[in-house]
Amino acid sequence: MKRAFTLSEVLITLGIIGIIAAMTFPILLGNYKMKTFEVALFQNS
Questions:
Q1: In this structure, how many other beta carbons lie within 10 angstroms of the beta carbon of residue 6?
Q2: Does 7 score more than 90 pLDDT?
């Protein structure tokens, strides 16, 4: 007998992944902006 995931299990998993992504995305974006600022600052001097 094949065992498959139920719809609720899939939705809960996607919800958890979405919450983790929403928490980490601003941090990654901030790090990227800071790095591009540093590169631009050192290239102009």
A1: 8
A2: yes
CA distances from 38 to 9, 28, 29, 30, 41 (A): 44, 15, 14, 12, 5
- Give the gyration radius of the chain's Cα atoms: 20
Question: Can you tell me which residue has the tokens 């990654």?
Answer: 28
Q: How many CA atoms lie within 13 A of 1 on its CB side?
A: 1
Which tokens in the block code for residue 22? Answer: 């929403």
Other beta carbons within 10 Å of 34 = 10
For 5, phi then psi, to 5°, come to -80, 145
pLDDT band for 15, please (50, 70, 90 cuts).
Answer: very high
Structure-token pair, residue 2? 């094949």
Query: Residue 18 pLDDT > 70, yes or no?
Result: yes
